[in-house]
Specification:
With 281 residues, this protein is mainly alpha-helical. It is built from ten helices and nine strands. A hairpin with a 2-residue loop joins strand 6 and strand 7.
């Protein structure tokens, strides 16, 4: 009898431990998806004032560019129009490679090349959180591809980071800025794609939307043309509140309302990394 009770208690403790571990994963995934990854910035429909939250993650922004004409898809748990019938492995494959379960590659606007660096735990956390998003039935227009869709890993982020690497402040800042795909928006596009090698962080990319047309800014360490002369607090204010050094308000799709949830330690790490981005005028 004593042995049976002992086994029962051990099984109960193991179940509780697994539940707590899953809960921790969901919390981490919530922090990533609704914060640093800004997933809703593309996948949630927009109105003149921003996200339409009652339709969160059910399909969002549209692009009609030379490589494609696409709308950010529904990533809720709806099994017909979302990703509810995808396996965890299929979601991870898409995030790592850009390939859907049907073998079709998604549009290059999805920042897949910035997710190669993601730790295995964070990848698990994202999937765990996506499973909690309520199902919303919403069919978006099918994608139109005008050329093959190809993904290239962000320089320096070609392989998954380990948890141990996150103890280094600069590495952590690079990691966070990478999965936040900051340089996707803040690096101009050339004939062969983003010009990371020569114009990293120099801005100039245009974003039309319900807010009008916004242009990404230079975020290199230049003291005359960028944020090199800003204080840490001024950079953090711009990231988390959308208020520039001169008090002007930044426009979407800058995801400041997502970044407002980023922890103080993570913000410190991101700013430390931005200080190392080579100055470009």
């Amino acid at each position: 009898m004593v042995r049976f009770v002992t086994i029962l208690l051990a099984a109960f403790a193991a179940t509780i431990g697994m539940a707590n571990a899953q809960s921790d994963l969901v919390k981490r995934g919530d922090y990533l998806v609704n914060g640093i990854l800004t997933c809703g910035n593309c996948h949630t429909p927009k109105g003149p004032t921003g996200d339409i939250m009652e339709k969160a993650f059910s399909g969002g922004l549209s692009w009609d560019e030379p490589p494609f004409k696409v709308t950010a898809p529904n990533i809720t748990q709806d099994k017909e129009t979302g990703i509810g019938d995808w396996t965890d492995g299929q979601i991870k494959t898409l995030l790592r490679t850009g390939v859907r379960p049907n073998g079709v590659t998604i549009a290059m606007v999805m920042p897949v090349g910035f997710y190669d660096i993601m730790t295995e735990r964070d990848l698990d956390a994202v999937v765990a959180y996506l499973r909690t998003i309520k199902s919303i039935k919403n069919t978006v227009p099918p994608p139109v591809y005008k050329m093959p869709q190809v993904f290239f890993p962000f320089p320096g982020g070609e392989k998954p980071y380990t948890e141990a690497m996150m103890s280094d402040k600069l590495k952590k800042g690079f990691y966070l800025a990478t999965i936040a795909h900051c340089m996707e928006c803040h690096t101009p596009m050339g004939p062969r794609g983003r010009e990371f090698a020569t114009k990293l962080g120099t801005g100039g990319f245009e974003f039309p939307g319900p807010w009008g047309v916004s242009v990404s800014r230079n975020i290199t360490s230049s003291k005359t043309k960028s944020i090199g002369g800003w204080t840490d607090d001024e950079i953090k204010r711009a990231i988390t509140t959308g208020v520039s050094r001169d008090g002007s308000k930044l426009k979407p799709p800058m995801g400041f309302h997502y970044y407002s949830t980023v922890t103080a330690d993570d913000l410190d790490a991101v700013v430390a990394y931005l200080r190392t981005v080579p100055a470009k005028e």
